[in-house]
Amino acid sequence: MRIITGVAKGIKLKVPKGLDVRPTADRVKESIFNILANLELQVDRNAIIGAKVLDLFTGTGNLGLEALSRGADHALFVDHSMVSLATTKENINHANLSKVSEVHRGDSLKTLDKLTQSGRSFTLIFVDPPYNQGLVNAVLQKLDSTDVVENGGIIVVEYSKHEQLTADWQHLKLVRNERYGETLVAFLTRYYEITSGGS
């Protein structure tokens, strides 16, 4: 597993042994970032360049670090596991991206509440929870009901083919869904204009 391109191109990332971490495969990650680079947003902003990134269930920091390497401004990495965060910190330092990185230990849903209370928001959010535990829809419901996602912000969600997105959202819109073997990757955006009944 490595950083594919950008200022930290080629840096190999550490994956802890014996830990239930499922890092995004390089081929899937490359596809994700190719899609992000070509998404046509309804805001005057590139999805990656200058992004404020939130990497939930970060595991190794793989996705957030790739975004930083490609020009994101800042990334907050969140996980409840001390081992995962220690690995993430090591990968951040190895990639020489510590000045634009922040690491937080905590439950992802509770962290979203804290971020809301503190008024923090992000333009690019990665959600890669353990599969088949109902976490994907719980996180999306939270992102739908809070202001953590900025207007026109993008959410990238990895989930199992055995899970189904509820799509019971008021503010989120699914713009693309891809399958890579057992893994599905959904791309969603949030537009506050969707709030008022509309068609």
Automatic annotation (TrEMBL):
Signal peptide: none
Top-rank lineage group of the source organism: Bacteria
SUPFAM superfamilies given in the database record: S-adenosyl-L-methionine-dependent methyltransferases (SSF53335)
Keyword terms, alphabetized: Methyltransferase, Transferase
Species per Swiss-Prot/TrEMBL record: Sporomusa silvacetica DSM 10669
GO molecular function annotation: 16S rRNA (guanine(966)-N(2))-methyltransferase activity
Gene that encodes it: rsmD
Pfam families: Cons_hypoth95
Stated name of the protein: Ribosomal RNA small subunit methyltransferase D
InterPro entries: DNA_methylase_N6_adenine_CS, RNA_MeTrfase_RsmD, SAM-dependent_MTases_sf
Enzyme class of the recorded protein, top EC level: transferase
EC number(s) stated in the UniProt entry for this protein: 2.1.1.171
